[in-house]
Design brief:
There is one protein chain. This protein is of the alpha+beta class and 180 residues long. It has a single domain (8-175), classed as Mog1/PsbP, alpha/beta/alpha sandwich (Protein Transport Mog1p, Chain A, 3-Layer(aba) Sandwich), CATH 3.40.1000. The chain has two helices and eleven strands; from the N terminus they run βββββαβββββαβ. Strands 1, 3, 4, 5, 6, 7, 8, 9 and 10 form a nine-stranded antiparallel β-sheet that branches. The protein has a two-stranded antiparallel ribbon with strand order 2-11.
């Protein structure tokens, strides 16, 4: 299934002030200067094939250790359909692929899912954490990926960070934005 996503990455500091929110939906993430790993990453962006994306790559390990936040269209996208679109190719291409069941959640009134996957490719292990949120205006995806061994403690730290993300809407009290 082809997803017709025009993914636009969003560089988000920790939001600490409602004055910096844009009108409409806003992704709220705790990834910012107060997060323990923040100083070890630098932003990277690229425009290619009519898609813009930005991610934070490790200053030491480059793209082998990165975090990305993407915002795309909700057209023809479902949360479970998106997860399947990620799991299918990985399952076909990895020597051994494991993906947890999607953990369903409601984040500030919006449906979301979270999952972890591991892909074994000969001498390489890829671990990925993903949280997807279906907003009314946009589809939001946060992905942390390690293309190297990673400790359980580091995975748990990032799972905690990602689980604290949400979407708010300055024009809809059902999805209220933080006051500060």
């Amino acid at each position: 299934m082809k997803l017709k996503l025009a993914l636009f990455a969003l560089l988000l500091p920790t939001l600490g002030n409602a004055d910096i929110l844009q009108t409409g939906e806003n992704l709220i993430t705790k990834f910012g200067p107060s997060f323990s790993d923040y100083e070890y990453y630098e932003p990277f962006s690229m425009n290619e094939h009519d898609t813009q994306f930005t991610l934070w790559k490790s200053k030491k390990r480059g793209f082998s250790d990165h975090y990305a936040v993407n915002i795309g269209s909700t057209d023809n996208v479902t949360l479970m359909g998106f997860k399947l679109s990620q799991d299918g190719p990985a399952d076909r291409n990895c020597v051994d692929y494991k993906s947890t069941q999607a953990e369903k959640m409601v984040l500030n009134g919006y449906d979301g899912i979270a999952w972890k996957s591991t892909c074994e490719l000969d001498d390489l292990t890829i671990t990925s954490l993903q949280v997807a949120i279906m907003g009314n205006e946009h589809f939001y995806l946060m992905r942390k990926m390690w293309k190297m061994p990673v400790t359980d403690e580091k995975v748990i730290e990032w799972q905690t960070l990602l689980s604290q993300s949400s979407v708010c809407d300055t024009t809809n009290t059902a999805h209220a934005c933080p006051a500060e």
